[in-house]
Batch of 3 targets.
Target 1
Amino acid sequence: MSIAILMLVGGIAAGMFGSLLGLGGGLLIVPLLTFGFDLPLREAIGVSLVCVIVTSGASAAVFLERRVANLRLGMVLEMFTAVGALVGGLVAFLVDERVLAGLFAGLLVYVAISLIRPRSGTPAPSPVDPGGAVRSTFLDRLSGPDYQVHRMGPGLAGSIVAGLASALLGIGGGLVKVPVLHLIMGVPLRVATATSNLMIGITASTSAWIYLIRGGIDPYATGPTAVGVFVGATLGSRIAHRVDLRALRLLFTLVLLYTAFAMLRRAMGVQ
Amino acid sequence: MAVLLRLGTYVAVGLIMCGVILMLAGGLSPLDPAPAFDPARLLDDLSALQPAGFLWLGLLVVLATPAARVAVSVAGFVRAGEPRMAGVAVLVLVVIGVGILFGTAGA
């Protein structure tokens, strides 16, 4: 079987499992391309960023149509996430690939743990306002009809981290954005997920332009992978209700931990 | 905005798919050295049915779609009488533009 077909099939699997587990495609594509096809890590991250934009496009359109996402809040946070992605995109070409491998190993361990942890977190209580009913008009305008946005400062800092992580690791950054929006800023989980999804394409494209211009995106490797991930993510969203996700989460926890170990070996220069 | 997102995504995936089919037909492997991005060659590659032309154009559409979405939202905020939010969206576009400039400078 040709390598292009193998990459296409690998992309379908990464897109489908990413969609089923709510991880997005990026987290699985980078290990697939580096360990499965021996692509340099930075190049795999570039391919992954493209796949992230492709998969987020269709689902973001759905969220927009359903009017679930908070467009105003998303745009304000995106200003900071994009700055993080810009800095991350430039830094990615300055640091040794082993540093990126070490960071990726850390991300894999974090996600592996979050897969087996209970899913629902409780938002932190609203900060006490000693001044009584004095609230920022700006925050009010960013809030929804049934929730109040708070802790803008930590939210903006978290957004910058999300952008950095996206650019350095080839992910959408939803793994950071959703907890920031939900647990720190008090946005309901459904709105947080939709708003994060709306921002993902913009975040990933900010650094993907840098990767493209600096030769970090290989069109031959990106083509089959991106088409595969798009097909896989579409399939995943259609079959999600028929799959036993508990067993799949447990299986992928083990897969991600093993991949983290392999990535850590790469970071330490052990091939 | 949703229509633009959907359209951009499907057009991009369609173009990339054409590139992949041409790659397979030409016996090219994803691990073969690919031609570097050169905007001046894009039209020639497309008219000569070279896979790289379709792949690069598809990638450009992928990367341009989110920025186009932000540009549309600028107009939406202006129409809705929200100049501050329009300014925020313009700043997002500026950051993307700065990234392209910095990327080009260091290429």
Target 2
Amino acid sequence: MHEVSVVSDMLNIVYENAESHNIKSINKIVLRIGEFTCINEGSIRFAFECLCKDTICENALLEVDRATGDELIIERIEGE
Amino acid sequence: MKNIVIEKSILKNNDESAARNRNILNDKGIYAINLIGSPGAGKTSVLEQIICNIKEKSHMAVIEGDLYTTKDAEKIERQGVNVVQLNTEGACHLDATMVGQALENIDTDDLDFLVIENVGNLVCPAEFDLCEDSKVLVMSVTEGHDKPLKYPAMFQKAETLILNKIDLIKYTNFDIDEFYKDVRSLNFNIHIFEISCTTGEGVQELCNYLQEKIARKKSGR
């Protein structure tokens, strides 16, 4: 249920990093999500689709690495 | 193509707000709990019992999380305790920034004990640190003994578990041995209190435990 706020916080981190590295378009975002978080991957993808419209992340691929703990990490971004 | 390694918590903004709140509370030795649990578990009833027992001994304040109403805050206010209402307007959890705003409206100079009653939800509040010293989870026997394994994150992150409505257990098929076994398998060190807000059973033990925590925080131990 709270995936929208999680994705919104994630996008803010992406924008900050894109700006400081002069990236104009994001190709890929890699997350690491532990199985003991209460995060549903489907909801994350739906929220991402909605929130990245008309932004530099519009065409980005969202990759989710699963982990075993309660990690909720943004690993890296790719862009140009 | 640039590849930027970030490796940061996605909730870092929340965690930073929580750290700011925590600094305020730690400076003044205020013990804070985040009261969590599903709707109807009895969070507010437990809180009313805690207030009755503790308000004469310690200065306390309450931050009340609720989707839309001020019903719970009004109940608390009638007990003569300083209370700030946070309405999340549909959001399923409190976050540390909201709690920071509420703290601005509380006189923390003379405070010993802060209770943050979260929105009724057995999933999302587990993820968001608010500034608390301890997460106190309220569940009731009428919810069924299968809940720990179905909602593991809450039971793993709580330091204290209050099993409420224990007076009703004889009318249910709640298997208390199974319940203890499942809870311990998720969180071996959790403190469990069986209480009833109707009969008062177990309330004194719970309040003694909290009072000791409050005193320990105040004295900086």
Target 3
Amino acid sequence: MVPLSWYLILAAALFCIGVFGALARRNAVGILMGIELMLNAVNINLVAFWRHIGPDQMTGQLFAIFVITVAAAEAAVGLALIIAIYRQRNTVNVEEIDMMKG
Amino acid sequence: MFLFVVFALIALAAAVGVITSRKPVYSALFLLLNFATLAALYIMVEAQFLAAVQIIVYAGAVIVLFLFVVMLIGGGELDDIGGRNKKFLARLTWPRGIALVLGLGLLVAVGYGLLSGQLMTATNDAAAFGQGSVQAIAAVLYTDYALPFELASILLLVGMIGAVALAQPPKKD
């Protein structure tokens, strides 16, 4: 069986790539994709821990399923927000979306 | 072991492709490749139900949603998809080249895993899938985790209503 640490390294690398994507992309859709990458990295961790530490307890897998549920809801609402903003401002560049003067 | 390394490298390369592609359409397609590779990894740890959910929910629903929105808001200029007047190699820009290599890599790795039996735990008995099977998950999900399950359904309902409400065209008055 593949060692646990390999899964953790893969998940950490994917998470870091996702963080970079979420922070560095200017396209709002790209930011959402970075967030999806991060959620998937978390799922790898959950499943790997389930497999290596307690295969008889289903907690890891069930958490992964709930994470997928939340990710699906998040993607739907996030993309709806992007469409609403695009209607209003005609752009999805997050640097131009500054109605709240952040 | 070898298969894990191949899948991990494909997943990482696809993730890098997601954040480096200039065009959102390429990003979404690289994300699809990443999700498919992760599903293969889930099968390797014998979480078959999760792998199916990964493909259905992520690779199916979420990616289609992403692509739909990207197409709707015009994700940058789509360079010549048809490109009839160009040779094949001239149309092979770097995202397509990388995607071709990674996609073929995934196909070869999955084929190798299936043929060598590393991706197959299966017999014809559903219970033989063990702790990753629908049976095992459902037995816990509908008993010990019934409350989170109901909460998740409420979350999905709220998300659905929110998405419909947000995406409404503004009222003209």
